[in-house]
Amino acid sequence: MKLVELFKEKQVYSFEVFPPKRTAPIDSINKTLDGLKDLSPDFISVTYGAGGSENFEKTFHVAKAIKKCGIESLAHLSCIGLNKDEVDVLLEEYKSAGIENILALRGDLNPSVKLSKDFKYAQDLIEYIREKGDFDIAGACYPEGHPEAESFGEDLKNLKSKVDAGVSHLISQLFFDNEDFYYFLEKCRNMGIDVPIEAGIMPVVNKKQIERMVSLCRARLPKKFLRIMDKYEDKPEAMRDTGIAYAVDQIVDLLTQGIDGIHLYTMNQPEVASKIHRSIATLLS
Ligand code: FAD
Asked: 117 or 207: which carries more pLDDT confidence?
């Protein structure tokens, strides 16, 4: 099923997982998926390690495992280290496995990745996939602006061209202040970006996670959030519970405001997703 259809029916509720790390067997993903499938997400997306096609096998395996659970999968694909001939091979594999949904990304700039000669921005990949005609294409967006963009306004203009290139829905970067998301949403709609936009929510359950996240995506941490983290950083259980409560509070407000959907960054922790789910299940129509 193409994901665009889901948004016509309801507020969508989806999860993100990553393939197992190098040291873990690939089938260890089954334990994660077993824990997530009972929560009945509308789809599960699986990340793609930035770099060349060597990262494909793991993402492909997990995307197929998601489908085997009876859940729609969305396979991430970052183009920064790929050329057209490589993308052709990967798309053929997806097509033959019945995977119809691709989250088309550029990937983070990284000195160890040999840059693609064919794709500079996600938009280039989107145009290329769209020519093939077989896929529903999602894209990434940044409620606080992408860190490399000259300005918030420039980033929005680039987002508009990306969507016009063939994106049928957007998934946002994580954020901790819903007002930032509402402001972004309003600007998108004013600019004519009218595809569904899912809000990306990450429950922060330990201090290391915040440090990594802030260095990667530079999300703004509101005072309310910092006060909680300061108070409980040395109490792992309290930190986990307050991180979950904070995410639930964000989701309740977002659903109440009628947004298109919630994309939960599960960090492969079904027990955390499950606690969140218990608090919001009755809100999901
Ligand atoms: P783009 O849309 O290409 O934007 C990158 C920058 O270029 C922005 O500053 C933008 O304003 C600018 N830009 C875009 N188009 C143009 C243009 N035509 N002309 C001039 N400037 C332009 N990374 C991974 O490696 N693997 C993953 O699985 C993954 N999953 C993600 C999932 C989500 C929901 C999100 C939000 C991010 C994810 N990322 C992932 C991170 C992402 O790859 C990085 O944020 C990356 O830096 C940008 O990717 P993009 O697709 O948004 O790029």
From this structure: 117
Q: And the tokens for 80?
A: 């920064």
Helix ranges (H only) for 4-117 are 29-37, 56-68, 84-96
| 107 ligand 1 Cβ < 6 A | yes
CA pair distance 158, 3, nearest whole angstrom: 23
Q: What φ, ψ does residue 151 adopt, rounded to 5°?
A: -155, 165
Report the distance separating Cα 120 and Cα 114, nearest Å. Answer: 12
Is there a catalytic annotation at residue 16? yes
Centroid of chain to Cα 127: 20
What is the percent of the chain where pLDDT is above 90? 83
Residue 260 has which token pair?
Answer: 């298109």
Element (H, E) at 58: helix 56-68
Of ligand 1's atoms, which has the minimum distance to the CA of residue 48? Answer: 28
Instruction: Decide which of 115 and 160 is more confident.
Output: 160
d(CA 232, CA 63): 36
Cβ of 161 below 6 Å from ligand 1 = yes
